[in-house]
């Protein structure tokens, strides 16, 4: 790389960088004397910040119901004019109509319009706003991309960033900035010596008991995979699409389903604080990785025993079958529900709206520091994990999923890349919405954790199957909490709702549920205790599940590999999970899918909202066939279809195999930098103008279509 021209723009951002840097230091130096004080202000992604932990003020059961529009908000809630069809929420349409701020609907007139004040209308509205900000905020040029990079992360982009950017553009990536997950996963490694990172990565696989594979890249080739499996083979295939840009490296990969690292919160705070302090943006850096770094695995030695190089212990410990929260809570902030005395009801307020507990913050619904106390006995991983090999030490191990308290480095799950008919979406076998059945389907095996006669009722899959078993509901006289429309309303008025917690779900479950196991698996000493509890439903291929309008996806032993296909389908995906994946920040609950609490205490409220329940007029209610004569809720099929369509279109743009390649490429550039001894002095220090021409031509070429469709 030749010398780079110092232009005004560059001086400007450098100055900005210096000022920002000064502020950080200033803050650190004067904000508090002890590191702990300083550290307690560094947010860990996916965790509540200390202020958020205070229970929200003034929320009580009485003022929940009238979820009118936010008084300061410009956008009215989704209106449902009784005479005219719903306004089309499709952004493309909005853009075509030339509206600068799409989705603003005409002010309803009292005579013709009323509002549906169901909390879901409000949640969908909010999600649309967030998603629009996300979509419109993305950088359009390389200049903007590097500028945003520096302002967000306080560093130059890594070496090879120019090539990555071109790669990403050619693959039509929708949001070239959204790689925070990578940055968050790697941030604490700035507090670890690069040589230690390399040594761990090189040798972690050597003890077969610890469940680690490794991919070795030398001279732009995957030259060997040790202790690999189809997973590492698939990862190697992804890497091959951009391997010419990578330095030599060893990539240690988790072979187990369960995540590995739990660094205690206090240690993590120290590391994050060190990372802050290490942020530098020297005026000129070298745009290439350092060659021949010591500490990588010596590929010339055939026999591992002959390799005398240094090894570092990962301090693995085995902990299967024990309460996961006992170790996991160490990684939580002291004031979080997992480490304080906060009641479950108080913790719930952080992520559930208060009527029937619909999820209003999907991130927190899977934050173990928040939900851990509520679900520690209700999920297989938390209650009866089959294989936990964990460490409290920060070592570089790549994993397909993790829980938010883990420090594994996420990469896109191989199942999403591999072409496997069991998990692949096939459009030819999908039906149009109107031809789908009005029910919710789930099929699977009894995985999730080790099951015994007295613990299976705590497993997440088993709970789901029982919850939606009409016979079981009837036998146990089960009751669910839902929302019902208020009665005696003047038709022209707004539709308002009230909670009803005595909903008898048996008939509804029979009519609108198709949820069951196909096979028992993973029990001790054997699965015969299920004989009197479950009957096995016929196996249904992935694509024939799409005959149902509603698909629910829950965890197995770890994350569920079906999720991309569910989103791509014309059905609507419901999702309950404790796991985090690479794609989380690009998927918006209530815009692309329906979030479900891991306790499923909201599931009947959700299903009755979409499917509808009962008759509008009271006369029918006295007929006596209906188990719940008090309940009436109009169907919201339109809303369901809208969500399904939005999820499908978005998945087709942002969860493609190309997106996986782009994510991995970016991840391995960042990884290549943190394990480089010169990591502070390598990277891209230009202002982005070198790709002006590229941006201009790409903008006119392939990307035109994309932006045209998206409407921005
Ligand atoms: C209906 O709801 C809208 C939006 O919340 C509100 O502005 C309007 O006053 C309500 N109308 C009636 C009759 O309550
Ligand atoms: C690699 O894994 C296999 C089992 O998958 C094991 O038998 C073997 O010992 C492992 N090799 C090393 C070096 O860990
Ligand atoms: C490692 O040490 C052993 C014993 O000292 C020696 O025989 C062997 O050659 C060494 N291996 C290498 C690669 O130097
Ligand atoms: C938690 O509750 C116990 C017993 O009620 C009490 O002694 C302790 O101080 C409480 N801790 C916090 C952090 O509130
Ligand atoms: C399963 O385990 C139970 C309890 O230990 C035992 O009575 C039964 O014979 C076993 N069934 C089979 C098929 O092995
Ligand atoms: C539903 O529950 C009943 C009674 O508890 C049981 O006999 C039946 O096998 C269950 N059905 C399924 C699909 O598991
Ligand atoms: C949820 O987490 C993602 C990262 O996975 C982040 O981008 C997003 O801003 C978070 N949303 C909220 C509401 O905190
Ligand atoms: C997915 O995207 C491709 C390329 O933009 C387009 O041709 C195709 O019609 C899209 N499919 C769906 C279902 O939106």
TrEMBL record:
Chain intervals for the UniProt region annotation (Disordered): 46-111
Keyword Electron transport: no
Keyword terms of this UniProt record: Membrane, Transmembrane, Transmembrane helix
Spans traversing the lipid bilayer: 12-32
Cited InterPro entries: CAP10, O-Glucosyltr/Glycosyltrsf_90
UniProt keyword Transmembrane helix present: yes
Sequence ranges of Low complexity compositional bias: 69-85
Pfam families reported in the protein's UniProt record: Glyco_transf_90
Boundaries of every Glycosyl transferase CAP10 domain copy: 364-678
Protein name as annotated: Glycosyl transferase CAP10 domain-containing protein
């Amino acid at each position: 790389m030749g010398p780079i021209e110092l232009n005004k723009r560059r001086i400007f951002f450098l100055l900005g960088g210096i000022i920002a840097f000064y502020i950080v230091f200033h803050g650190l130096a004067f904000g508090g004397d002890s590191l702990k004080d300083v550290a307690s202000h560094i947010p860990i992604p996916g965790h509540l910040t200390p202020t958020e932990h205070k229970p929200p003020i003034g929320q009580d059961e009485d003022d929940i119901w009238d979820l009118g529009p936010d008084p300061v908000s410009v956008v009215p809630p989704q209106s449902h004019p009784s005479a005219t069809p719903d306004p089309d929420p499709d952004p493309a349409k909005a853009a075509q109509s030339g509206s600068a701020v799409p989705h603003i609907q005409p002010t309803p007139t009292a005579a013709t319009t009323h509002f549906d004040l169901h909390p879901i209308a409000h949640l969908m509205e909010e999600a649309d706003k967030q998603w629009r900000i996300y979509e419109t905020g993305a950088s359009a040029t390389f200049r903007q991309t590097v500028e945003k990079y520096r302002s967000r992360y306080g560093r130059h982009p890594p070496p090879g960033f120019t090539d990555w950017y071109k790669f990403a553009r050619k693959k039509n990536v929708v949001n070239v900035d959204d790689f925070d997950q990578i940055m968050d996963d790697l941030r604490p490694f700035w507090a670890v010596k690069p040589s230690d990172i390399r040594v761990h990565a090189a040798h972690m696989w050597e003890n077969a008991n610890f469940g680690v594979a490794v991919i070795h890249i030398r001279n732009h080739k995957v030259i060997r995979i040790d202790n690999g499996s189809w997973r590492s083979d698939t990862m190697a295939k992804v890497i091959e699409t951009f391997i010419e840009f990578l330095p030599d490296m060893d990539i240690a990969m988790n072979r187990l389903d369960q995540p590995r690292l739990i660094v205690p919160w206090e240690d993590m705070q120290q590391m994050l604080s060190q990372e802050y302090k290490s942020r530098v943006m020297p005026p000129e850096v070298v745009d290439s990785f350092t060659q021949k770094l010591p500490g990588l695995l010596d590929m010339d030695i055939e026999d591992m025993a002959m390799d005398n190089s240094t090894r570092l212990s990962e301090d693995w410990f085995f902990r299967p079958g024990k309460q996961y929260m006992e170790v996991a809570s160490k990684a939580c902030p002291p004031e979080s529900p997992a480490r304080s005395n906060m009641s479950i009801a108080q913790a719930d307020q952080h992520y559930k709206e208060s009527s029937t507990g619909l999820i209003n913050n999907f991130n927190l619904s899977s934050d173990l520091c928040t939900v851990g106390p509520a679900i520690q006995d209700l999920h297989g991983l938390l209650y009866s994990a089959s294989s936990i090999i964990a460490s409290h030490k920060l070592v570089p191990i790549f994993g397909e999923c993790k829980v938010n308290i883990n420090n594994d480095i996420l990469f896109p799950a191989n199942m999403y890349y591999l072409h496997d008919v069991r998990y692949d979406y096939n459009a030819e076998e999908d039906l149009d919405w109107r031809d789908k059945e009005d029910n919710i389907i789930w099929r699977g095996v009894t995985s999730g954790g080790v099951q015994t006669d007295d613990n299976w009722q705590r497993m997440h899959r088993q709970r789901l199957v029982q919850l939606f078993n009409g016979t079981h509901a009837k036998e146990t006289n089960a009751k669910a909490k839902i929302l019902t429309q208020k009665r005696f309303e003047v038709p022209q008025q707004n539709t308002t709702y009230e909670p009803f917690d005595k909903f008898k779900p048996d008939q509804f479950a029979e009519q609108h549920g198709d949820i069951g196991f196909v096979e028992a698996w993973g029990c001790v000493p054997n699965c015969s205790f299920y004989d009197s509890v479950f009957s096995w439903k016929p196996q249904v291929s992935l694509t024939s599940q799409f005959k149902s309008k509603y698909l629910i996806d829950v965890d197995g032993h770890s994350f569920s590999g079906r999720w991309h296909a569910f989103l791509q389908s014309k059905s609507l995906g419901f999702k309950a999970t404790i796991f985090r994946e690479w794609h989380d920040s690009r998927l918006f609950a209530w815009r692309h899918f329906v979030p479900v609490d891991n306790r499923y205490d909201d599931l009947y409220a959700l299903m009755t909202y979409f499917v509808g329940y009962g008759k509008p007029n009271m006369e029918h209610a006295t007929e006596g066939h209906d188990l719940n004569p008090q309940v009436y809720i109009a169907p919201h099929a339109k809303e369901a279809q809208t969500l399904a369509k939005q999820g499908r279109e978005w998945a087709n743009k942002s969860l493609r195999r190309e997106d996986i390649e782009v994510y991995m490429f970016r991840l391995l550039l960042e990884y290549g930098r943190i394990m480089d001894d010169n990591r502070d002095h390598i990277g891209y220090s230009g202002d982005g103008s070198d790709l002006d021409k590229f941006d201009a031509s790409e903008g006119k070429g392939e990307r035109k279509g994309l932006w045209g469709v998206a409407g921005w």
